[in-house]
Amino acid sequence: METFLEILKIVLPALLVMITAWLVIGNMLRDDQDRRRQDLLLQTVKTVTPVKLQAYERVVLFLERISPESLIMRTAQPEMTAQQLHSALVSNVRSEYEHNLSQQIYMSNEAWEMVKNARGTVVRMINGVATQLPPAASGEELSRLLIEQVMEMETEPCRAAIGYIKSELARIMG
User: Where exactly are the structural domains of the chain?
Assistant: First the structure.
């Protein structure tokens, strides 16, 4: 019995030290793992945020470029017929859109839907005005009618999309 007590005097403190060490080391490892996870998350945010902001900037530039006023200013030539200008305008919108398609991965679904709706509305507007003109109409007539239609709108579709994107960015940036 005395031997058992002697062994117990040695084993019990050793067991307590071992259990304490195990708990302390386990907590340290969990804390270290959490800290590494937070560092990785912070590094990801530092990397993704500038890219995300750049995507929003590019989409706003896209919307500015496809707004009818800007599109006409860049595309229209004095000698163009309405059909030529119509084709060039629609082609320009499609080209700009295809060039910026990849930006959608950095945007919310709602923001990208606004961008797609703005593009679709601009193309429909161009197509609608073009169908109102006779085949021999000049590009200037198409330009004038497009500008008039934009001026009659309560909110131009590209401006509405840009407004939505700005408000989304304000929410993201906090």
Answer: 49-173
